[in-house]
Amino acid sequence: MSDTIKTITKIGGLWEHKTYKGSYFQNYQVELTTGKLCMISKKKTDKNPEALFDKQLGDTIIIEYTGEEISGIKKARDITSKQEWQNKKATNTGGYKSDTTQIAMSVCYKGVIDLVCADKISPSEIKSETLEHFEKIFKPLIK
């Protein structure tokens, strides 16, 4: 769920995780512009020794509820950076999103390189030939 941060309130102090001894967290109550409240925990790390919340008021946040509650407030995790990474990964594949498509494109590229090595086509044709082979052979098979 994507929303905008309205308020951020630090709740309590650092606490140690029961299962993972030596891992410390800080809870933050986050109110979203839709009026929903959620509790997000930030981990104390070398890069974030005070377990500070890394978003500001007005920032867009993508959250995923964990199914737990703390003091009656639903616990959530901030998955904004994960979602941004997935979106970036999808757009960095030439507009093709699946691993199957990337593999098919690699097969076409390998075939074109073999043609260059056999002096059937020139190296300047690698990109256009790879795309042409992909469009003709694999793209109709991948939906």
Written overview of the protein:
The chain has 3 helices and 5 strands; from the N terminus they run βββββααα. The chain is an alpha+beta fold and about 140 residues long. The chain has 2 domains: about 1-85, no CATH class; about 95-140, no CATH class. A 5-stranded mixed barrel has the order 1-2-3-5-4. Strand 2 and strand 3 form a beta hairpin. The radius of gyration is 24 Å and the shape is elongated.
**Total count of helical runs of at least 4 residues:** 3
Task: Going across the biggest sheet, name each strand in turn.
Answer: 1-2-3-5-4
Q: In terms of structural class, how would the helical and strand content be classed?
A: alpha+beta
Q: Beta-sheet strand percentage?
A: 25-35%
Question: Overall 3D geometry?
Answer: elongated
Q: For the residues shown, what is the average pLDDT? A: 84
Helix content: 25-40%
Care to count the β-strands? 5
Poorly predicted spans: none
Rg calculated over all Cα atoms:
24 Å
Would you list the SSEs in sequence order as H and E? EEEEEHHH
End-to-end separation in angstroms reads: 27 Å
Domains, number: 2
Major sheet: size, sense and barrel closure?
5 strands, mixed, barrel
Quick structural gist:
The protein has 143 residues and is α+β, with helices and mostly antiparallel strands.
